[in-house]
Amino acid sequence: MESAPQSGPEKKDPESPGVQQAAAGQDGMRGGGSLVELTPTPGGLALVSPYHTHRVGDPLDLVALAEQVQKADEFIRANATNKLTVIAEQIQYLQEKARKVLEDAHRDADLHRAACNMVKKPGNIYYLYKRESGQQYFSIISPKEWGTSCPHDFLGAYKLQHDLSWTPYEDIEKQDAKISLMDKLLNQPVALPSCTEPTFQRLTN
Question: What is the distance between the alpha carbons of residues 176 and 60, in angstroms, rounded to a whole number?
Fold first, then answer.
């Protein structure tokens, strides 16, 4: 008589792969660690590129890197050159302005040393003449007023400004326009902004 099949958990062959994985998992847990699945794409995602991790270094990459560094150096040099060019132009402009200021100062000092038998008043135009002896002097009579009887060589006409500087006759109109513009700007009332704070109300009233 055949014996009835025994019920219960099915015994697995200890040599089968499933048993080995289960045993390995149990041993790992006994040791306090956990196993990582040995697959290049865990969860279907590639963590690293096999092409870059397994291939030998490509010499072309080094060439491209060198070219990029060289291009960056060229851009930096060009940018610095442009900035230095602007600074050089500003320095040249300031040097030219400084030279003009010194020239005008020397001219004004020489004109104030010219002989004059009157009190010079700012706002008036004076005419500079030169005698045969070389002496320079100021007069209020213009060459046009002298006519053909002008006794000495005429050197130029200058307007005495209120800062005691001299303006050549050909620049008087332009200089007067600048001064007029500055006067308008200085004479404009400066309105304070309205303020509702009690402390500042008296300033705007």
Answer: 71
Q: List, in order, residues 6 or more apart from 120 with CB less than 8 Å away.
A: 126, 138, 160
Does this model's pTM top 0.70? Answer: no
For residues 164 and 181, membership in a common domain is answered with yes
pLDDT tens figures, 107-142: 999 999 999 999 999 999 999 999 999 999 999 999
Give pLDDT tens digits for 152-170.
Answer: 999 999 999 999 999 999 9
State whether residue 26 is helix, strand or coil.
helix
Q: Is residue 44 in a domain?
A: no
For 71, the domain range is 57-113
Q: Nearest Cα to 110, choosing from 138, 91, 146?
A: 138
* Environment class of 129 (CB within 10 Å of its CB; exposed 0-12, middle 13-18, buried 19+): buried
